[in-house]
């Protein structure tokens, strides 16, 4: 699996420039098969998928049934089989079964895209059938638009799967007819998302026929008001011989990056986090004590990878809502200032939204939207019960640092009388449900 370095090592200029586009909501990442080639996902490229489909269908139908099909061209195989009675359904079910489209482990690039999408920093379009991005969000599953009905019902930011998904074989686009005449929602969404946007094509080294029409539509939708970037290891040395040169004949060299999907998304994710943290610091620069405390906590991000940072941020959210950024919550600023105030030592970030400073463990809860103090208390109780249930030591239980909660923290109500009966609560066996969290308000410390 790709190994990312600490964010403090710095990012290239193009990553910082695109992060600036992302913070303004104008960055679209358009992914292809190369994204899912990285370890440990290892889903084969289109030519290999075609070969496997051809081999399996020849075995099922006989060689004569696929006469004239190019075994290395997925669209060619699809057109021949779809012409048979009942062939289209068999074709789709066969195609989604020749690789681990729904079971492969997500890789670094999948997780980076999932977390950036959940933080509301990028829009994402994919021609891939696998559901690795959806599963890469950890506790948060990324929503996906696969059909027109999805588009009508899903209102949160979602992954747009313009060639269908292996979880729903009937949505998979394979034949020439499918690709030339995609569902109406595909063209509508591409035009809507890409107008006046910057679009980065990631993991499409050569423009296979089954994705070319989508790329041409995307290029047309972006138009002169936007910008197109191509990310692939082969574009530095093989541009003129590639189909990219036909699709984008006047594409400038400075917008081609000879990188893997993982390398590019590593730099982009790190640049997004660091750029937004810097903007917060600039916003409070006239408050010297608050800035000093904020920068102590901000330093903790410099020594972790961008995925660790984004996982930490998403773990802080109460509630977690796709597309609702933690970094951009005003209360998040108070949380980091409070962490810096809690001790003169450096702050260390740990999984599940935990931080260690001055020898104490804190679990940070950042209210997303208008969240009441009672809601945050319930969240803290739930997390503390989980911590104790998993064998956590009472002596090292985290203190909950709460930011953005509206109202007062009320005392826990204890066990219901129907549970206690006539017993003294002190006679009950101790367990995780008897633990009450310690909460402190970040805004009080930040003030």
TL;DR?
By secondary structure, the protein is an alpha/beta fold.
What does this structure look like?
The chain is of the alpha/beta class. The chain has helices at residues 13-23, 46-61, 74-82, 87-95, 108-118, 132-135, 148-153, 176-180, 184-194, 209-222, 235-238, 244-247, 261-283, 288-302, 306-316, 330-341, 373-389, 417-420, 442-446; strands at 27-31, 123-126, 144-145, 159-161, 198-202, 227-231, 256-257, 317-318, 348-350, 354-357, 360-372, 399-406, 439-441. A seven-stranded parallel β-sheet has the order 3-4-2-1-5-6-7. Helix 10 links the parallel strand 5 and strand 6. It is elongated, with a radius of gyration of 25 Å.
Give the CA-CA distance, first to last residue. 43 Å
Beta-strand share of residues: 5-15%
Instruction: Summarize the biggest pleated sheet.
Output: 7 strands, parallel
Strand order of the largest sheet: 3-4-2-1-5-6-7
Overall geometry comes to elongated
Number of helices: 19
Q: So what's the oligomer here?
A: single chain
Helix content: 40-55%
The unreliable regions are 414-420, 425-432
Task: Note the topology.
Elements lengths: L12 H11 L3 E5 L14 H16 L12 H9 L4 H9 L12 H11 L4 E4 L5 H4 L8 E2 L2 H6 L5 E3 L14 H5 L3 H11 L3 E5 L6 H14 L4 E5 L3 H4 L5 H4 L8 E2 L3 H23 L4 H15 L3 H11 E2 L11 H12 L6 E3 L3 E4 L2 E13 H17 L9 E8 L10 H4 L18 E3 H5 L1
Parallel strand pairs: 1-2, 1-5, 2-4, 3-4, 5-6, 6-7, 8-11, 11-12, 12-13
Antiparallel strand pairs: 9-10, 10-11
